[in-house]
Backbone:
């Protein structure tokens, strides 16, 4: 890991104050994060299984060991979906300001089979998900030994362990496709042949994970997993019944999507046992099954009191545009808000580094080297968002698409930008999510302690002044920075929020997609329209009828599919969804092979700065790049494994 002096001082402090030694136990490597939360606790100096389950306290520590294997998805270098795709780009090569270079190498097409990047199969960031599954199995095998555990708690803990076991299988499935199933731990006396497991067909894996989640969510509201967390001091971040049902919905939507449903790209991929790993036949009933799972999860969320987030400014005075902007930003960044279905707290400060990597220098009077501003959206992300009329920029018959790269002067009527400033037409008359999610030269950045101007031409306080701490595209990822972040020249206060693995708008979009694909397109529109209303937009029907060059697009399955996918790309932008969505939709070869453009950040005048510059020509190779390669060494050790196609 290569860190700046600031990183080194911070991690040194954490190591002195909070680090817990790694535990090597029965083949399970329980590595803790630097900053601990109660979910990162591991049993202390446990010598035997009997000691680990001797009483309730020790058993609960072991349950939290299972939680400790959850990947830190809110960390910029530990989630491939932040910098491994096309939502955020950065300068290259990097010599500091990073933990791992793995995701950046994936984005640049450098993945390999000898030593795969972000290899959660064998171990990445100290986490092998197979070891996490083994920990869950160990817990399930031994929890009956705990003599002082109340029956209702035992049922809940078993449900948590079963869900985590399902989630680790799901995480591996999404990365590697058909995987082995580790339902039971093999005994120490197992023969070498018993250890040589086979990959299982996609449908078998999906059904296994789905059934495990069904077991975890069985019973009424008073049985097993709680519908809501009532003890906020000790249990936030633990799984709920609603969260488990929502993850099942995501699993089944993924399984119904083109990557897994009727995909002939992998028709020849067979296991060593002769099993066909991908079913090449399309099955429409998978979408019906997915829609049913989404509806069950939505009903459970509603019963638990979850609802789309709307910003309450309290004593802070905001105008209508700022209120809409905070509806959008704080649906992600406000801790434990009304929309959050499952938030990850792994690492104790789950979004600390994400915010520092995303936030640029906002205040010309206080330059702080902790504000990296390096997670830079490419120009394609700026073009993704709708016009103010709620349709794509290339479809809006009233928007000047042809002149989008020509300079215009900002007026007082242009919200989100600096009056009198010059910027390209692309930045004018766009939907509120554009200004909430992204910042650019000439935009404003609203925070709780004030509104800041972004000025990022060469030498300006937000722009490039040295070999680091700048946006390589000229854009900044505003959406994931909490509005409570405050810094001076010598101090930084970052309010870390739980990373939203699933929020309600995500679930609504999954449901709308499933409804459309299963022949209920009209029923999908209300769920899209609720999300659009929160973002300050009119309905799909109104927007397309009145402003689109294809006014009836929403009335066909194909047309509405395009709208839903576009809506999802916008609503879930910069949340780690696009990386996986492009794969399951099988649009990745086209989208992820498109050139990466930014503005000419090495220029100091309006005219020179606002010129497109080609930064990189990525190449997504299908079908190879849909899945991670299995490390070659594993294939040598276990000849029953087969490599993914193309690797």
Residues:
């Amino acid at each position: 890991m290569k860190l700046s002096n600031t990183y080194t001082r911070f991690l040194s402090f954490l190591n002195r104050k909070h680090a817990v030694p790694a535990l090597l136990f029965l083949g399970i490597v329980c590595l803790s994060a630097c900053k601990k939360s109660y979910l990162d606790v591991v049993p202390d100096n446990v010598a035997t299984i009997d000691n680990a389950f001797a009483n309730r306290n020790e058993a609960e520590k072991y349950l939290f060991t299972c939680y400790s294997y959850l990947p830190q998805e809110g960390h910029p270098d530990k989630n491939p979906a932040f910098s491994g795709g096309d939502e955020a780009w950065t300068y290259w090569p990097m010599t500091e300001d990073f933990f791992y270079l793995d995701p950046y190498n994936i984005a640049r097409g450098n993945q390999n089979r000898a030593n795969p990047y972000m290899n959660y199969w064998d171990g990445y960031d100290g986490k092998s998900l197979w070891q996490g599954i083994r920990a869950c199995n160990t817990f399930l095998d031994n929890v009956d030994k705990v003599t002082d555990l109340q029956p209702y708690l035992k049922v809940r803990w078993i449900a948590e362990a079963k869900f985590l076991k399902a989630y680790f299988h799901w995480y591996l499935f999404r990365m590697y496709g058909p995987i082995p199933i580790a339902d039971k731990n093999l005994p120490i006396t197992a023969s070498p042949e018993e250890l040589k497991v086979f990959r299982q067909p996609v449908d078998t894996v999906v059904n296994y994970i789905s059934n495990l989640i069904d077991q975890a969510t069985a019973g009424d509201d008073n049985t097993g997993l709680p519908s809501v967390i009532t003890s906020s001091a000790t249990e936030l971040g633990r799984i709920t019944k609603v969260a488990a049902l929502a993850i099942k919905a995501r699993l089944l939507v993924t399984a119904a999507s083109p990557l897994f449903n009727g995909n002939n790209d992998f028709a020849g991929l067979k296991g060593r046992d002769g099993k066909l790993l991908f079913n090449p036949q399309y099955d429409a009933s998978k979408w019906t099954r997915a829609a049913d799972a989404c509806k069950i999860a939505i009903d459970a969320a509603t019963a638990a009191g979850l609802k789309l987030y709307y910003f309450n400014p309290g004593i802070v005075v905001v105008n209508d545009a700022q209120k809409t902007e905070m509806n959008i930003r704080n649906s992600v960044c406000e801790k434990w808000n009304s929309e959050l279905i499952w938030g990850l707290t792994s690492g104790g400060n789950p979004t600390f580094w994400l915010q520092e990597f995303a936030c640029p220098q906002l205040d010309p009077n206080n330059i702080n080297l902790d504000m990296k501003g390096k997670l830079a959206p490419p120009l394609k992300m700026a073009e993704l968002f709708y016009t103010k009329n709620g349709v794509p920029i290339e479809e809006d018959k009233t928007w000047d698409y042809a002149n989008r790269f020509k300079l215009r002067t900002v007026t007082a009527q242009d919200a989100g930008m600096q009056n009198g400033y010059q910027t390209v037409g692309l930045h004018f008359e766009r939907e509120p999510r554009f200004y909430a999610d992204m910042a650019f030269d000439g935009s404003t950045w609203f925070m709780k302690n004030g509104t800041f101007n972004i000025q990022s031409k060469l030498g300006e306080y937000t722009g490039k002044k040295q070999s680091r701490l700048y946006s390589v595209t000229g854009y900044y990822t505003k959406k994931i920075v909490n509005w409570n972040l405050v810094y001076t020249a010598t101090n930084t206060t970052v309010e870390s929020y739980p990373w939203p693995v699933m929020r309600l708008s995500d679930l609504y979009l999954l449901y709308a997609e499933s409804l459309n694909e299963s022949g209920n397109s009209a029923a999908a529109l209300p769920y899209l329209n609720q999300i659009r209303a929160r973002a300050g937009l009119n309905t799909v029907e109104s927007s397309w009828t009145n402003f689109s060059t294809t006014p009836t697009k929403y009335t066909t399955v194909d047309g509405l599919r395009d709208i839903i996918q576009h809506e999802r790309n916008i609503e879930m932008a910069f949340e780690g969804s696009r990386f996986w969505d492009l794969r399951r939709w099988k649009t990745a070869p086209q989208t992820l092979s498109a050139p990466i453009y930014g503005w000419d950040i090495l220029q100091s005048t309006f005219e020179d700065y606002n010129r497109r510059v080609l930064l990189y020509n990525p190449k997504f190779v299908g079908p190879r790049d849909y899945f991670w390669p299995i490390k070659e060494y594993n294939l040598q050790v276990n000849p029953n494994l087969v490599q993914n196609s193309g690797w």
The radius of gyration is 24 Å.
